[in-house]
User: Fold this.
Amino acid sequence: METINKKMYIIPAIVLLVIILIIVLLSIQKKQVGTTPSSSLLPTRIITPPKTPISPTKVSPSPMSSGLSSVTPSVIPAQEFTGVSENQSLPKDVELLGVQKTELRRKTPLSGAFGSISFDYEIDTFIVTLGEPKETNKALFEEWLKKNYPAIPLDRFIRQ
Assistant:
């Protein structure tokens, strides 16, 4: 029984001793690798080779002098038209549609006597929610639209 109790103390002691020995060896090894001689911290002298004069090399004879025919490139004149017109503009109805649609989209969500208007960016369409009675409010909405935003067609609106 005493041998079992001794083994219970001896085995952990040996394992602890081995771990301490490994830690000590690793720290000593790091110190040896991490230390550098003080001379390596000094700047090193770079030796550059002496400058040598450059002499011009012989130029090879041109194709004309050797009897070969030469091709003369043709010069393409600069074009005045680049594809962009400074006077380019959208048709008035398209421009007016864009302006009115942007203006109404910035005002949404909007409430009126007919109901409310919101804008669905995913399908790029206005959503109109009509109040009760729907037929009366539908006529009110169409009248309001013609009066305030005549360039926006009814097909740009989804009625709910």
